[in-house]
Amino acid sequence: MTRTKKYAAAAAVAAVLVGIPTGAYATHATAPSAPAPTAATSTTPTTPNSTAAEGPAAERPSTQRPTVVRPGERVDAGGGWTLWLTRDGKHWAGPDGYENFRSVTDGNIDLGRPGVSHQSEGDATGVFHSGVYYGTKKAARVELVAADGTRTRAALVELPGKPGWGAWYVSTPPATDPGGIGVALYDRTGRLLAELPARPF
Questions:
Q1: Any residues with CB less than 8 A from the CB of 91 and at least 6 apart, and which?
Q2: Strand pairing partners for 22?
Q3: How far apart are CA 162 and CA 196, in angstroms?
Q4: Whole-angstrom Cα distance, residue 142 to residue 93?
Q5: Are 129 and 154 in contact (CB under 8 A)?
Q6: Residue 181: how many other CB atoms lie within 10 Å
Q7: For labeling, which of 26, 67, 127, 187 is most exposed (least CB within 10 Å)?
Q8: Residue 143 domain boundaries
Q9: What SS3 state is found at 57?
Q10: pLDDT for the residue numbered 65
Q11: Is 29 in contact with 136 (CB distance < 8 Å)?
């Protein structure tokens, strides 16, 4: 199986895990977006195979409570993907069983202000996206944002006790837009907290 693994970090640090190239990136929002209309709270996360939603974020409900999971509790992310959290960060494994890890304690992210990271792996059948959001207790929505404006909402998971970070995940069809895809993090009012620009993956 041909797979790509990409991670991004504000310092654009490249790493190698078990001989497979990886990369990570993260950034912070520079300006808030217009608030979205208030919507009823949902405790059910969006499935990782959710369909893309069109139109600007402010036109859609923004409230989504992260699902609270125990440390080490496996989350079925669909398509053979599994995700779990520990106090040290986000872990995930693909259909082949190969495990990956994104630390929240290695100093590569600033837990003192809102940010979001993005990792993706996939092949001709589809792409699994996941990442860490952090530096806020008000996270309510993470969306993938394609260069053509198409948006796909992700599912959110957190550990108990409001640790100040959590993880998101969603699956998409194989990429066809050469402009790539970005990530946006919003609070419960629909205010943009952090974003990553669209990049090929």
A1: 83, 84, 85, 99, 100, 101, 102
A2: 15
A3: 23
A4: 21
A5: yes
A6: 25
A7: 67
A8: 4-199
A9: helix
A10: 79
A11: no
Contacts of 107 (CB under 8 A, 6+ apart): none
CA distances from 64 to 15, 40, 58, 171, 172 (A): 33, 9, 14, 18, 20
Residue spans of alpha helices (H) in 55-149 = none
Q: Give how many domains the chain has, as a whole number.
A: 1
Q: How far is CA 156 from CA 13, 140, 175, 178, in A?
A: 25, 8, 22, 27
Reported as half-sphere exposure (CB side, CA atoms, 13 A), residue 55 has a value of 6
pTM of the model: 0.70
Report angle CA 149, 150, 154 to the nearest 5 degrees: 125
- 119's tokens: 């990792």
Residue appearing with tokens 């304690």: 105
| Contact (CB, 8 A) for 104 and 111 | yes
**Total count of residues recorded for the chain:** 201
21 within 8 A of 12, measured Cβ to Cβ? no
Provide the H-helix boundaries in the chain: none
Strands 155-158 and 119-123 come out as unpaired
Per-block mean pLDDT, blocks of 10 residues, the chain (201 long): 38 31 39 36 36 41 77 96 97 94 93 94 90 94 90 96 94 81 94 90 60
The sign of the dihedral angle between the CA atoms of 96, 97, 98, 99 is positive
